[in-house]
Amino acid sequence: MAHRPRKILLFVNPFGGKKKGLKIWEKDVQPLMTIAGIDTKMLVTERVGHARDTLLSVDLSDFHAVVCIGGDGTLAEMINGLVLRTSRDRQIDPNNPEADLPTPRLPIGVIPSGSTDTVAYSLHGTTDVQTAAIHIIFGDRTGLDISSVHSDCRLLRLYASMLSYGYLGDVIRDSEKFRWMGPQRYDYSGFKKIVANKGYEGEIHLLSDPCHPATSTRCIKNCTRCLQHMHNSIPDKEISRWLTVRGKFFMVNGANLSCGCSRSPMGFSPHCHVGDGCVDVILVRHTSFFNNIRMLLRLSSKQKTLYDLPFVEVYRAREFTFRALPTLHMQSSNEISNRCLKSSLSVWNCDGEVIDSSN
């Protein structure tokens, strides 16, 4: 009980998911915090990046934890803010891909109120808000891998759940036009992009780990693999090797978690470990509309996974790079307009936010 937080900084996103963040605070979370005797300073976010910017500047010396009522995007903002602040305080350059980014002093908690809430679901097996709040009240902790996304020697973002190029990138970009629809905008844009069945040429270089996701054990509390990594007993680059994969892809994904949710209980990579220092790279080849439907049905299954689909390749990697192949030959051709070049590229969906850099 010594690790229970006594004072927390809480961000409430009133716009995420079904826009119930404030209601969840008033009805479910505030009464529990009062009973537990936890002093809570609550801030309502007003714009994208509000939580991140606040954590970069506010005095955090009196707080024992930082918590949000929001989705994966709000959680990612807090992670970015705290890690960047800690890096700044320790004079570490986050734009250096080789830099060892520091772990923030304050633990981070999330009470789910977003559209998918993959982090909360992957950690707790549920998106029940009271379950998440009770874990925070008890001071329960677990390590969580965070990945950094770089382009041209510049840090673009840190992410906790998944980075995805192709289909999910197209969905998040298209859905921005239909925010008035709420979470249903993802279904609408998702249907459009499944039917469009667009593929993207690309080249992936990955530093593969010998532990393959399909044969790995499931990640559970105090799992051996994550504990070994925490104590630095898993060999790193000495037993890893670089692989190159080229082709036309419907989707390229880098998962830090299983990325399960209520609609996809098993997630993209059900054997993904939350704290082993690796990312599961899931490559979905561009094939047919029929295979796209097969993939969606697998994702909605409670028992089957993507691992054995013939057009899906899964790797466990320490790091990976992606290069969109159209840029290699289109930039030298004056006959290709900028519009054609842009249409041959997707964007990255990074914890529900758009990253425009393809490479």
UniProtKB/TrEMBL annotation:
It comes from the Eukaryota. Gene3D superfamilies: 2.60.200.40, Probable inorganic polyphosphate/atp-NAD kinase, domain 1. Residues 3-153 form the DAGKc domain. This is DAGKc domain-containing protein. Pfam families: CERK_C, DAGK_cat. GO terms for cellular component: membrane. GO terms for molecular function: ceramide kinase activity. InterPro entries: ATP-NAD_kinase_N, CERK_C, Diacylglycerol_kinase_cat_dom, Lipid_Phosphate_FormReg, NAD/diacylglycerol_kinase_sf. SMART domains: DAGKc (SM00046). GO terms for biological process: ceramide metabolic process.
